Amino acid sequence: MSEVTLEEVLKAREERVVRQQEALRKYGKPLVCFTMNIAGPVKINEETAYAFQVGSVRLIEGLKTMGFRLLEKLDLSSGAGFGMLLAVDAEASALKHLCVSLENLDALGRLFDMDVIAENGCKLDRVHERSCLVCGQVGRGCASRRSHPVEEIQQVTWQIIRSHRMQAESEEIAKLAVQSLLDEVCVTPKPGLVDRQDQGSHTDMDIFTFNASAAALAPYFRKCYLAGIQDQGESEETAFLHLQSLGIEAERVMRLATGNVNTHKGAIFTLGIMCGAAGRCGKHDLEIWMDTCARLAAIKRGPGVRAEVGEGLPSVRKIGLPVFAKARISGLSFNGQCLMVLLHLLSEVRDTNMIARGGEETADASRNAARKMIETLDGRVSEEKLLAVMNELNEQYISRHLSPGGCADLLAATLLADRWLIGKYARKG
Predict the structure, then answer these.
(1) Confidence at residue 424, expressed as pLDDT on a 0 to 100 scale
(2) Contact 116, 31 (CB under 8 A)
(3) 3-state SS, residue 124
């Protein structure tokens, strides 16, 4: 994080003018010059990189939404700050209206400087002046009088960026958690579990019950992530107790949404801890994330899912994610990829839901049956063969009233982990 000199700033401005003139001669169309309003000598760091990325996405998407054709995008970034020059086939006034709306969208937009240069090379002015970043006063009085020290402006700037990032990431992980729950219930056929085909070994719930529950839990996952950030300076015990209080309320919300049916109690604990740990550790790193989960869950040891999370979700790390990665390149549909993960979980995980319904001996026999099914696939997995295997297991589980709810939660946890760490993946089929 180096400091930029005045000479470097002035040189960067001169180079931007040269690039603008070249683009005007080449296209004869309006330009957007997007830079950042960052006070002080530090222009390039993690915060400004994040803010510039958000602004860039908003600007490009805004052009698409308005039907403006992007002719060229030039990178103007240097040690003096991030920058981007766009040549756009649009009316300059309409382009200016879009840019002003993006600058006024929220607090983060206040840090964007999206100048529009018309075909004749003149910069279009704003109709209304921007307010002071610190005190909110309209006009340039604060800047001309230097009413606020650079340190104060920087403090406000970093707070704006960090607050936006925190809120955006909390919404993102909540979205991914809910999506993972919805995808888990939709994966079909799942032995003894509710899916699109049947209710499995359950009589009090169906796919619609699960959908209602998952949708109702979105605010909970967001709160868990924010709690993780809020409690970064607190002990694991304090952080866990905060998450536990949120989980208790989430169970109440779940039962209200489902008519008092327990659809996601295990997932509330597992995915809630995962969201809280993601906020607490602040890193998209599997081992650090899972270790944070373990230290949080270790405060209250227990069997089943509590033990799994307390050990750092080994079934997700050592079974779910590796199998999912291999299945993704196998040619299977997304549904098939998830079935492969579930089948491997069924073959290895000591699921307390299975034990509660059928006893230890039956649970052991079910794991062995799943292992044999994997052997029958013999590494050459076809969608048709996999569906046949899972349908066969489904009949067996339903006849014995078995339901591997713990494995279902671990499938959802695998999906969440994959999405949060990678950020994207290709669905097939």
Answers:
(1) 38
(2) yes
(3) coil
Q: Is 327 helix (H, G, I), strand (E, B) or coil?
A: helix
Place of tokens 């809280």: 276
Q: How many CA atoms lie within 13 A of 107 on its CB side?
A: 15
Distances 136 to 92, 102, 149, 219, 271 between C-alpha atoms, Å: 28, 18, 15, 31, 40
Q: Is 25 exposed, middle or buried (0-12, 13-18, 19+ CB in 10 A)?
A: exposed
pTM for the model stands at: 0.86
- HSE (side-chain half, CA atoms, 13 Å) at 59: 30
Residue 37 CB coordination number (10 Å): 15
Query: 7: pLDDT confidence band, cut at 50, 70 and 90?
Result: confident
Sheet holding 31-36, edge to edge: 69-75, 83-89, 31-36, 112-117
How remote is the C-alpha of 29 from its chain's centroid?
A: 37
SS3 117: strand
Between 140 and 209, the higher pLDDT residue? 209
pLDDT the model gives residue 381: 81
Tell me the average pLDDT across 314-321: 97
Residue 165 vs residues 46, 52, 169: alpha-carbon distances, Å: 11, 12, 6
Task: Give CA–CA dist 275/296, Å, rounded.
Answer: 11
Per-residue model confidence (pLDDT) at position 178:
98
Instruction: Please state, rounded to an integer, the average pLDDT across all residues of the chain.
Output: 92
Structural contact between residues 31 and 23, judged by C-beta atoms closer than 8 angstroms: yes
Condensed to tens digits (0 to 9), the pLDDT of residues 74-107 reads: 999 998 899 999 999 999 999 999 999 999 999 9
3-state SS assignment for residue 197: coil
Which pair of structure tokens corresponds to residue 365?
A: 């026999």
| Dihedral sign computed on CA atoms, order 410, 416, 421, 427 | positive
- The total of other beta-carbon atoms located within 10 Å of residue 263's CB is 27
**Nearest CA to 263 among 271, 303, 278?**
271
Amino acid 161 reads I
pLDDT tier, 140 (very low <50, low <70, confident <90, very high otherwise): low
What is the separation, in whole angstroms, between the first and last Cα of the chain? 45
Q: In this predicted structure, what is the pLDDT of residue 283?
A: 77
Q: How far is CA 246 from the centre of its chain?
A: 20
Q: Which helix (H) or strand (E) covers residue 74, if one does? A: strand 69-75
Residue holding tokens 């970093």?
158
Separation between Cα atoms, residue 427 and residue 425, nearest integer Å: 6
pLDDT digits (tens, 9 = 90+) for 232-270: 999 999 999 999 999 999 999 999 999 999 999 999 999
- Locus of tokens 């081992």: 287
